[in-house]
């Protein structure tokens, strides 16, 4: 058992999910790092950090990401910083004798024309979406990196691919956030007026989202029980349409559904991007929080913290 676990990205959404379930692992010690604690894009800083904390294992959640506007404006920064962080943590793990490291991939890296549900083996079968190609290729590079470090150095490195993540401490900043967070903020900020809430597209596209604490539990299971070169899809495969998601958020915030308007003249995005998590669930017997239950907790957290200075990333 890995007793001391270093968690990068400790102040982010996935890191917060890990913090919230840490008490379920009473025989473990978790060290949570944020960008303020260590600049992981610098090898010397990563080496010093790992030497200082001497972890038995590393969960690498830290990443630089953003919405379409950010990805379009800063593609080199996204590619460079994410690749540097990944390699610096791998180097630090091998040079400082860390027992195991788990790195985070994203299902957004998959080819745009991949057959649904998307299997892990098709990762390199085509190009990812043009709007986020640099982040996607940085995540794809984790796959050969894990293979190379296992082969040459015998490092226990694994890769785990996550889909859309939601939960307390999501990023709600305009231009940086995912759809569900954007909808929660827009609906909440307009709940006390009668204006229409316009959503692009016809609302039919299907999306997968996984509750952050579920992904944290999945990482812990894989840390203890999985040690293969093939990365795994570990996200929930429950699908909900954009329309049903909007209606659910409206219901939770007590907003009349009739105020929601779908603008069919605007692009709706890819219709479906389902993933295959069958290998992970077959091995682990994992149960996920339903989307509705997770959304209830997330909306409740948002409404309780919105007015608190600095509590919500707005």
The CATH architecture assignment of the largest domain turns out to be 3-Layer(aba) Sandwich
Cα radius of gyration in angstroms: 19 Å
- Helix-strand topology string: EHEHEHHEHHEEHEEHEEHEHH
Proportion in helices? 25-40%
Mean pLDDT over the full residue set: 94
Derived from helix and strand composition plus strand pairing, the structural class reads alpha/beta
Cα distance spanning the termini: 39 Å
Major beta sheet summary? 6 strands, parallel
Q: Order of strands across the widest beta sheet?
A: 2-1-3-4-5-9
Principal-axes shape call: globular
Compute the number of strand runs: 11
Report the total helices: 11
CATH fold-level assignment of the largest domain: Rossmann fold
CATH class of the largest domain: Alpha Beta
* Number of domains as seen in the coordinates: 2
Enumerate the spans where pLDDT stays under 50 for 5 or more consecutive residues.
none
Fourth-tier CATH superfamily name of the largest domain: NAD(P)-binding Rossmann-like Domain
Query: Proportion of β residues?
Result: 15-25%
Topology (SSEs and partners):
Blueprint: E1 4-8, H1 13-21, E2 29-32, H2 43-53, E3 57-60, H3 68-73, H4 75-95, E4 100-106, H5 133-140, H6 142-153, E5 157-162, E6 164-166, H7 179-189, E7 197-200, E8 206-211, H8 212-225, E9 232-233, E10 239-241, H9 242-252, E11 260-263, H10 278-284, H11 291-305
Write structural notes for this entry.
The chain has 314 residues and is an alpha/beta fold. The chain folds into 2 domains: 4-165 and 208-233, NAD(P)-binding Rossmann-like Domain (Rossmann fold, 3-Layer(aba) Sandwich), CATH 3.40.50.720; 169-207 and 239-272 and 292-305, UDP-galactose 4-epimerase, domain 1 (Alpha-Beta Complex). The chain is 40% helix and 15% strand. It has helices spanning 13-21, 43-53, 68-73, 75-95, 133-140, 142-153, 179-189, 212-225, 242-252, 278-284, 291-305, and strands at 4-8, 29-32, 57-60, 100-106, 157-162, 164-166, 197-200, 206-211, 232-233, 239-241, 260-263. Helix 4 runs parallel beside helix 5 and helix 7 (179-189) packs parallel to helix 9 (242-252). The longest helix has 21 residues, at 75-95. The two termini are 39 Å apart.
